[in-house]
Write a structure and sequence with these properties.
This protein has 462 residues and is α/β, with parallel strands linked by helices. The chain has one domain: TIM Barrel, CATH 3.20.20. It is built from 15 helices and 14 strands. The protein has an eight-stranded parallel beta barrel with strand order 1-2-3-4-5-7-9-12, surrounded by six helices. Strands 6-8 form a two-stranded parallel ribbon. A two-stranded antiparallel sheet has the order 10-11. Helix 8 packs antiparallel against helix 9 and helix 13 runs parallel beside helix 14. The radius of gyration is 21 Å and the shape is globular. The two termini are 40 Å apart. The N terminus is likely disordered. Beta-D-fucopyranose binds next to loops.
Length: 462
């Protein structure tokens, strides 16, 4: 049962536009100690009383590690072109340095081969937050040596898997790892120190640039990039104080990453604002960070509204909210894409995550279990429409991925927040495609039909 076709964006997307769905290792795999996997900072963080809203952890999660084949079938039945997943560093290199774990590498080999057998392009993320705890014990991302450990890990993974994946992204959302992990302490490793956070952000960017250089030198055939969480950030009122606060927040969240990656420099206003908390930057670091990428990945969920008196407000302007308390602002995606294209000109852009948490209900009907998540269908359809608007205005967007394939461990929110287009029953681990899965599948079929028609129209009549 699909919603009416009028809900689909009207324009056909380019024939080579990549439609996908995304997950990350820690959030779905479980198997926390299986086959020689080492401990990650998220394994450790979950044990801290009060760190995770529902007191949960990732030991089992969706048990994807043991349900790989069935999950691959779910991805294939959806009809996507691409699947974005991450490699768990401690699964393939338990201590973060030294010996690699063949069993861990074999798992990702099976995943990639399983995707290829189903005609789906693998998009591999090297670091979706689960740093080996052994490296954290030596200082983690705040320590410069971790940069080189990451480059070694990246080279090894790329040498083993790089010829079978379409793209490799180094880091997922450095701002989140730096600021939520080391300034607010809301995420692993739970440190609260702004200077540390800024040093971490620098090391993440540097390790990205050095990894790109190394993979290129190794002739890695995959396309290379990074994934940033970006939002349009504006002032709550017309006051000059709010405008200044919004400009600074934009500097800390957007320009602090975009400027070094595309211009080889940190934004001067933020640098000045940070005072003693600026990172230590060695000669040559900025040039390394600005190593040209093949594409930029962005994750978009909501906008930011900032006032001088406080930080972000979730409910500005009475827009509807998701279950995370995030405003639903599809036009923010258009605005963001236009700005990125105008100011930094990335060679290509991918929306690597977009989706929403809502309080879904699993209904038992005579036809079987169902989840009527009309809110999520609406969210996704409207964001694809916003993407379409950006493409129509000339932004080179090459792909879009829904977050997430299935309900999973939503970090500090535990299992209470559901982002999946497939429902996960955590008692039985049963997967139930939601209406949003059926809608996306219908949308993808329509895209495929249009592609086929367009291809046929180009065939010369004999
Ligand atoms: C992003 C993360 C992803 C997921 C979504 C909801 O910040 O990259 O793992 O948790 O938010």
């Amino acid at each position: 049962m699909n919603p009416p076709p009028s809900r689909y964006p009207s324009h056909p997307f380019a024939a080579d536009f990549v439609w996908g769905v995304a997950t990350s290792a820690f959030q779905i795999e479980g198997a926390a100690t299986a086959d020689g996997k080492g401990e990650s900072i998220w394994d450790r963080f979950c044990r801290q009383p009060g760190a995770i809203a529902d007191g949960s952890h990732g030991d089992v999660a969706c048990d994807h590690y043991h349900r790989l084949e069935a999950d691959l079938d779910l991805i294939a039945d959806l009809g996507v072109d691409a699947y974005r997943f991450s490699v768990s560093w401690p699964r393939v290199q338990p201590a973060g340095q030294g010996a690699f774990n063949e069993a861990g590498l074999a798992f990702y080999g099976r995943l990639i081969d399983g995707l290829a057998a189903r005609g789906i392009k693998p998009y591999l993320t090297l670091n979706h937050w689960d740093l080996p705890q052994a490296l954290q014990d030596q200082g983690g991302w705040a320590r410069r040596d971790t940069v080189h450990r990451f480059v070694d890990y990246a080279r090894h993974v790329a040498a083993r898997l790089g010829d079978r994946v379409a793209a490799i992204t180094t880091h997922n959302e450095p701002w989140v790892m730096a600021v939520l992990g080391h300034e607010s302490g809301l995420f692993a490793p739970g440190i609260r120190h702004r200077g540390t956070a800024m040093q971490v952000a620098h090391h993440l960017l540097l390790s990205h640039g050095l990894a790109l250089r190394a993979l290129r030198a190794d002739a890695c055939p995959a396309r290379l990039g990074i994934v940033l969480n970006l939002s349009p950030i504006g002032p709550a009122t017309d006051s000059p104080e709010d405008a200044a606060a919004a400009r600074l927040e934009d500097g800390r969240c957007v320009r602090w990453y975009m400027d070094p990656l595309f211009r080889g420099q940190y934004p001067a206003d933020v640098w000045q604002h940070l005072g003693a908390d600026v990172p230590l930057v060695h000669e040559g670091d900025m040039a390394a960070i600005a190593t040209p990428m093949d594409f930029l990945g962005i994750n978009y969920y909501t906008r930011g509204v900032v006032s001088a008196s406080g930080t972000w407000s979730a409910q500005h302007g009475g827009k509807p909210l998701t279950d995370m308390g995030w405003e639903i602002v599809p036009e923010g995606l258009t605005e963001l894409l236009l700005r990125l294209h105008r100011e930094w000109r990335p060679p290509a852009l991918y929306v690597m995550e977009n989706g929403a948490a809502f309080q879904d209900t699993l209904e038992h009907t005579p036809e079987g279990p169902r989840v009527h998540d009309a809110d999520r269908v609406d969210y996704i359809a409207r964001h694809i429409g916003a993407l379409d608007d950006a493409v129509a205005q000339g932004v080179p967007v090459a792909g879009y991925m829904v977050w997430s394939l299935m309900d999973n461990f939503e970090w500090a929110s535990g299992y209470a927040k559901r982002f999946g287009i497939v429902h996960t029953d955590y008692a039985t681990l049963a997967r139930t495609p939601k209406d949003s899965y059926l809608w996306y599948r219908g949308f993808l079929r329509l895209q495929a039909q249009r592609r086929a028609q367009a291809a046929q129209a180009q065939v010369p009549v004999p």
